[in-house]
Automatic annotation (TrEMBL):
An annotated Gene Ontology molecular function: tRNA(Ser) (uridine(44)-2'-O-)-methyltransferase activity
GO biological process: tRNA methylation
UniProt protein name: tRNA (uracil-O(2)-)-methyltransferase
Similarity comment: family membership: Belongs to the TRM44 family.
Species classification: Eukaryota, Metazoa, Chordata, Craniata, Vertebrata
Function: Adenosyl-L-methionine (AdoMet)-dependent tRNA (uracil-O(2)-)-methyltransferase.
Top EC group: transferase
Length: 295
């Protein structure tokens, strides 16, 4: 609808209609084929000769639809735009009559669909059909804001991580501290597990308000800090690296030697903050026990 000269390319993937998930109507077709036909129908309704092609990409969803040419002259653009609006509005309330996909589906064939789509609309919606896309339509911003907790200030994230870790540790019975460098398998305090709701109840309102503006909120922040936490079935645990399974991938001897020697790029949180230090000795921990180990 941008202009008469507009062309388009679309690679259908997730099954969505204009106002939510796409509802299947034809059990004889696969869901993917039916959805491709629906997206093609939208192109036909908008007055395009829709072409289909298959991309050379490593994906199961690789069928694309292309609209390069119109099925009507420029003088009919305003009329077609009104009919498009009626089609969109109609899909919000009841299903549109669907047609079998076939080559050479021309503009005349779709005029019946337009009439059916507009026949049940209230008069006021028909009158304003040419001036709106759909009620409440809001285009996405050109620059999308990152809201997965990754752009939060480092000091804010560190404070939340430390607060939650101390909460889990204080919920467990106190145990004797072990050597900071080596840890101790018998006395290392792993803390207790708490539900996300229980953890949130112990955070201040300002922190929660800031986290709620991010996708996933507190849970996303804790999962991002997987060195310290493990979130399973809605409960938060302090990660015990002694229980982590080694990677099954076999590496060449040279890469094994390099990974053991050269790739500690972050400090170990447990070495710095846990009252018992890290549960692993320095040579086994994937993180640096002190700045001298950083590479």
């Amino acid at each position: 609808r941008s202009s008469y000269s507009c062309c388009y390319f679309v690679l259908p993937c997730c099954y969505f209609d204009f106002h939510g998930k796409y509802s299947r109507r034809q059990s004889k077709k696969t869901q993917y084929r039916e959805y491709l036909d629906f997206v093609a129908q939208v192109g036909f309704v908008c007055g395009f000769r829709v072409e289909e092609d298959c991309l050379r990409i490593p994906s199961t969803k690789r069928v694309c639809l292309i609209g390069k040419n119109r099925t009507y002259p420029p003088i009919e653009h305003a009329l077609i735009d009104k009919q498009i609006t009626e089609y969109i509005n109609n899909r919000q309330t009841c299903p549109v009559v669907t047609h079998d996909r076939r080559v050479g589906f021309n503009h005349k064939d779709h005029s019946d669909v337009f009439k059916e789509a507009g026949s049940e609309l209230p008069e006021n919606e028909t009158e304003t059909a040419g001036t709106i896309w759909m009620p409440g339509f809001q285009p996405r911003e050109k620059v999308e804001q990152i809201r997965n907790c990754a752009s939060l200030p480092r000091d804010f994230v560190d404070d939340v991580v430390l607060s939650v870790a101390n909460l889990l540790l204080s919920a467990a019975p106190q145990k004797s501290c072990s050597n900071m460098n080596g840890g101790n398998t018998n006395t290392w305090n792993q803390g207790e597990s708490l539900s996300l709701k229980e953890v949130a109840e112990h955070l201040n309102k300002e922190t929660l308000k800031r986290l709620k503006s991010e996708y996933g909120g507190l849970q996303t922040l804790l999962k991002n800090n997987h060195q310290v936490f493990e979130v399973l079935n809605g409960r938060v645990h302090i990660r015990d690296w002694r229980k982590e399974k080694p990677s099954r991938k076999t590496k060449p001897e040279v890469k094994r030697r390099l990974s053991a020697e050269a790739f500690k790029t972050r400090l170990c949180w447990f070495f710095l903050h846990h009252p018992d230090g890290c549960s692993l000795p320095s040579e086994s921990c994937p993180y640096a026990h002190g700045t001298e180990e950083l590479r």
